[in-house]
Amino acid sequence: xxxxxxxxxxxxxxxxxxxxxxxxxxxxxxxxxxxxxxxxxxxxxxxxxxxxxxxxxxxxxxxxxxxxxxxxxxxxxxxxxxxxxxxxxxxxxxxxxxxxxxxxxxxxxxxxxxxxxxxxxxxxxxxxxxxxxxxxxxxxxxxxxxxxxxxxxxxxxxxxxxxxxxxxxxxxxxxxxxxxxxxxxxxxxxxxxxxxxxxxxxxxxxxxxxxxxxxxxxxxxxxxxxxxxxxxxxxxxxxxxxxxxxxxxxxxxxxxxxxxxxxxxxxxxxxxxxxxxxxxxxxxxxxxxxxxxxxxxxxxxxxxxxxxxxxxxxxxxxxxxxxxxxxxxxxxxxxxxxxxxxxxxxxxxxxxxxxxxxxxxxxxxxxxxxxxxxxxxxxxxxxxxxxxxxxxxxxxxxxxxxxxxxxxxxxxxxxxxxxxxxxxxxxxxxxxxxxxxxxxxxxxxxxxxxxxxxxxxxxxxxxxxxxxxxxxxxxxxxxxxxxxxxxxxxxxxxxxxxxxxxxxxxxxxxxxxxxxxxxxx
Length: 521
Known about the structure:
Structural class: alpha+beta
Strand order of the largest sheet: 5-4-1-6-7
Low-confidence stretches: 494-500
Strand content: 5-15%
Mean pLDDT: 83
């Protein structure tokens, strides 16, 4: 407005445009344009000089718009089509170039592509202004995956292993954490979040991400459903879990911008460096990240690290005494033999027999397995990784089963131990029998029967019979009993398949046939 008044004053005095140009250092075409605008306003120069800045600006702006509209009718046509352009751009596969081609077909004298895009960008910004967020220190941690991956080379195979990269940032200070993961599964994400909080040395009030499957199991604009493991992590660290609105990446604009910064300050810096394992890769990432944190903000005299240490770290919540331990959650039905199975290891754990047929919740980590019914813990065991094994607590059995177990060793380990005492083939057969049954209890009868055959036929014969039985495809008590009754275990080389021709003296060998043939000749 000051420059306009510098033009108005000599115009009022009758100075020429050439003279005004020298006085105010503005080009003659611009001075002439303003002179026309002032003349079209219908007001005298002295009146214009007495107007406020706001009133003078309104006259100039309205005059400019009217001049543009009167000088270029193509703008009117373009503005009429603007609603249609914005609606079409939301459709899959529709681009600005396609819309421009269609626009020129309908209006051949219209704008060229560059001007078309410029006007569209201008009016879209006016219709949809961006909002500036003001962040409080320690209020939120924004998390997201980078679109591009980093990689390392496996020395053994020479294969290039690509790794997803998770990025977390505290928007107030811009202090961030970047880590490459072996995969993008929820356990790896939770482990990265643990390391992220440890890197910051504290816990913010909230953690925000988009609706990625590791963060949200069911999307909802108002109350999304979170994975149980993530909820447990949040409770352990006293941190709130937030999710952006579906398909609204600007809700986490800070981490979106941090991903772009990571590409420039980390990815670009590491592009010519080779790594040979994940640890080396993450070490290289942290080195570049630390250098980034120590650089001053543009046009500021302090860095992200200085701002974080001075104003954000002091307000973060304290870290818990121990980091969150990854826990797995699953559901299962109690089998008729009062066991539930952890499918990851295919190992069975007992529960009180009264819960047979009930659906229970199983919670386990690397050390313990806990079973809950209606939010009440009904059993817990040390975790076993033995496939198809059984872990049993005596107090979970009904009374009659307890008596049988106490008297006869009603336990898989008991029978396997007895079989091992008799010999390796007996042990191997017992193991095959147990694995072939639907429940372990179905194997106890056959195993007990075979052990009792030792009393009748002796240890050596039963061991030989078990060796022979292992040659078949079915494993049970009856096969061992048949072998012993028919004394097939006593035949020399019994482990081999017997000849279908019985041995006796009235047999001719191949030599006899050769001799007969020679005599005939």
